[in-house]
Specification:
Number of helices: 3
Strand content: under 5%
Order of helices and strands: HEHEH
Strand order of the largest sheet: 1-2
Radius of gyration: 15 Å
Helix content: 40-55%
Oligomer: single chain
Shape: globular
Low-confidence stretches: none
Length: 85
Amino acid sequence: KIKPKQSKILRKKGYQIIMWDVLSKDYDSNTSPEKCLENVINNTSQGSIIVFHDSLKAQNNLEYSLPKAITFLKNKGFKVKRVGG
């Protein structure tokens, strides 16, 4: 989350703020790997930024859904790129 005042200060300093619009919910223990993949596939559109987490809590969902999501999206003509970290 970012407040408008924070955003303004960062932009004045030359930073570009990039926000996400699709949350895989890979971190949620109540979300199955299949549902995690479904969250991505059903909510991604051109220009989307998808959030996956590199953490132990997300590991099972991430290992299952990320490769499948990438393959699915590439087959639909999307370009997949890493943003940040």
